[in-house]
Amino acid sequence: MLAPPQNWWKPLSRMERSWVIVAFVWCLVLTIMMPLWFFLGRQNVPVTTYRVTQAEYFESVNAFVEEYQVDTLQGIPVVEPPPGSDVYLLARQWQWYPVLKLKKGEEYRLHLSSMDTQHGFSLQPTNLNLQVLPTYDYVAKIIPTQSGEYGIICNEYCGIGHHIMTSKVIVTE
Amino acid sequence: MAVKSMTAADNAAAPVPVPLTEQDLAVADRIAGTSIFLGASALLIGVTLGVMQGLEHVGINLYKYVQPWVATYYHGLTMHGVLNALVWTTFFIVGFFTYAIVRSLNRPLRYPWLNVLGLLVMVIGLLTAAVPMLTNNASVLYTFYPPMKADWSCYLGLTLVVVGSWMAGWGYFFTLYAWRKEHPGQKQPFIALTVSITMAMWQLATLGVAAEILFLLLPWSLGLVQGTDPLLGRTLFWFFGHPLVYFWLLPAYVSWYAMLPAQTGGKLFSEQLARLVFWLFLLLSTPVGFHHQYTDPGIPQAWKFLHTTITFSLAFPSFLTAFTVVASLEVGARALGGKGYFGWIRKLNWGNPSYAAQNLAMILFVFGGIGGITNASFNLNLAVHNTIWIPGHFHLTVASASTLTFFGILYWLAPALTKRKLFAPKLALAQAWTWFIGMLLMGNALHLLGLHFGAPRRTMLGSAPYASPDWNPFLMESAVGVTFLAISATLLYIVLIGTLFNKKSDVEVKMPVAEPLNPSQSIPKWLDSWTPWVFGAVALVLVAYGPMLYQLIRDIELTSPGWRVW
Q1: Which pTM was predicted?
Q2: Which of A61, A107, B205, B439 has the fewest C-beta atoms lying within 10 Å of its C-beta?
Q3: pLDDT at B87 over 90
Q4: What whole-number distance in Å separates Cα of residue B434 and Cα of residue A65?
Q5: Cα angle at B235 between B376 and B307, to 5 degrees?
Q6: Which residues lie closer than 8 Å to B428 by C-beta, 6 or more apart?
């Protein structure tokens, strides 16, 4: 039988010990900041997701466009839904459909899904990014806080026309 | 007597150590040399495509000159990612490890045929995947997100590369195991241990991508099932995708801890802490993948948050590395007469290309590490997700911290393998510095473009209608960086090919091995035993991934048809 070792941890030198403590505390601070900011910050990852078939989602989008269309922009309908309602945005090769017209300071439930490959919803130039997957209906609660025209681009590779996939959101007073 | 001492009979039970002969070394070196040669060849094509991408962003379209070899920007981008991030890294790492482990243990490979077979499987996989990739039948980028559908042979080829690297790992495990049997009671040599830890982490991590390909993508691309589930695919991919970056990084850490100090007269400052760092990487590397999926639908926040916390625990061993490695180098610089708080830095071995390249890689990794913590932050990620900030980040990590370190290793390893002198060491030194400057400029520009303007990654920016004139100064800065990198890559291949054809040298180049500063420091048992760490790693993966994967598989709907849209 062997005697158990005396030290389970050989003492570190003073400098080393201080550094280990500093590094550990710093990691702790960084980690704690995240849940804190989740409650304090105004921009967080959305939580709601539904499974849909692509046909179902397409139907919802068409019904939405039919009900609230107010204009047409380069062949794509411009849709102005009432505040507080469900807003549908569809990503496909290689466009966002339809163009949204929203009111400043009102809350909307923005639905995102794709008809084909994965896409990336990117609001320009304010930097808001969400992954768009086919057969998943992703719902984000949004409140536009500034009026103006915002671009939407695709920031997930979706094929040869990826770089021309663009649209806009119009926020009115 | 209560405590019985070891008897002579116990000692005799241990098998006799197998001596390392010239012939054994020749076998290991042949495997290492072939593997590294293939990796470096892949990198040559990969960096050329990278230069074309950088120039496209400022309106210089070179693709028209390379028809039909590189059909489109995205065809080139796919090959750039696969060749650089998967092929160059994996082949270099397997070669480097094969060379290092036999020398660290002073023992031949236990089953050389297993390592030869591993390399063979990797090569077959590379050739299988190369056919659809070169012919533009698999331009799905290196993350191959479903439901974009590549040719089945691409998925099969990539799987074989991974399986081959598993076999290389098994070869190391058997070798280390045999050494332990022959040396009962002795601590495992640092390099052999850390090489094996890296490969063990790789075994666990690659289970995700293996499952994705075998159960989702192969049956689907062969037409056996009609659709796929994009979220399950992404989740299994990132199960592998994040530990993949530690698979790139840990070989650089092996060199920084255990070799680099010896190249500047230093010693390994604290072997105890260094071992702890590697064990922590084995424990924590895999259950972190959801931090690539913060903006994904269908994954509850609690799970995303758990993975965030584990990711931030991983920052801890990297902070420890910063301390121990710098301290180890400082020991060397002070021994060479370095003085002052910062004055000692000038006394480091800057004239040696192998040393300089690795030290410069470390400096870039400071910025890469800070950016990585930003990406992994639950809140900040929303602002940079999928923007060109991300390529800016990983060009400072895999393309600098790892790749520039690997160049540095090559500057002693290529002469060691070929038994020839390094060709034009001055050019090699210039290569390291131009790579450093190039990556610094490009990394800075891409980070700022992503953060300030939300410019997208993986995009043919030079042809994007929404590209704003405000982006131009940054795209120009990036293009200047790319120019430096193009010069650097040219120098690299001049040095490497020059070395290959240089005349034979009698001076034997040995693997640098840093001695511990305090050789009498004994290593506690828990820092030398595999069981707690391996079980801990598996348990943590089960906790962090089990319930979510169970739910995704239970609710699987294979309803997304495949798309070929490039």
Answers
A1: 0.94
A2: A107
A3: yes
A4: 55
A5: 35
A6: B353, B354, B357, B411, B422, B491, B495
* Active-site amino acid positions of B: 242, 246, 393-395, 457-458
**For B4, which residue in chain A has the nearest alpha carbon?**
A1
Residues B390-432 have pLDDT tens digits of: 999 999 999 999 999 999 999 999 999 999 999 999 999 999 9
**Smallest Cα–Cα separation from B376: which of B316, B298, B440?**
B316
- Mutation target for B interface from A95, A116, A133, A141: give the one with most B CBs within 10 A: A133
Greatest distance between any 2 Cα atoms in chain B = 86
What is the Cβ-side half-sphere exposure of residue B290, based on CA atoms within 13 angstroms?
25
**Do the Cβ atoms of B389 and B447 come closer than 8 Å?**
yes
Mean pLDDT estimate for chain A: 90
Which residue type occupies B484? F
* Phi/psi at B205 (5° precision): -65, -40
What count of CB pairs under 8 Å joins A to B? Answer: 208
Residue B94 in domain? no
Residue type, A95: Q
Report the percentage of chain B scoring pLDDT > 70. Answer: 98
Q: Give B435-467 pLDDT, tens digit per residue.
A: 999 999 999 999 999 999 999 999 999 999 999
Q: What is the pLDDT of residues B282-318, one digit of tens each?
A: 999 999 999 999 999 999 989 999 999 999 999 999 9
Chain B residues with CB-CB distance to A39 below 8 A: none
Domain extent for B406: 350-504
- The set of long-range contacts for A82-90, using a CB threshold of 8 Å and a minimum separation of 24, is A83/A107, A83/A108, A84/A108, A85/A109, A86/A111, A87/A111, A88/A57, A88/A60, A88/A61, A88/A64, A89/A61, A89/A121, A90/A57, A90/A58, A90/A61, A90/A114, A90/A115
Tokens for B82, please give them.
């696969």
Q: How far is residue B416's CA from residue B419's CA, in Å, rounded to a whole number?
A: 5
Q: How confident is the model at residue B96 (pLDDT cuts 50, 70, 90)?
A: very high
**C-alpha triplet B259, B261, B264: angle, nearest 5°:** 115
- Average model confidence (pLDDT) for chain B? 94
B258 domain-assigned: no
Question: Is B103 inside any structural domain?
Answer: no
SS3 B562: coil
- A34: nearest CB among B145, B308, B459: B308
Phi, psi at A137, each rounded to 5°: -100, 110
CB-based contact B139:B73 (threshold 8 Å): no
Domain boundaries, chain A: 48-172
Which chain B residues are within 8 Å of A36, Cβ to Cβ? none
Fold (topology level) of A48-172: Immunoglobulin-like (2.60.40)
For residue A103, which of A122, A74, A89, A82 has the smallest C-alpha distance? A82
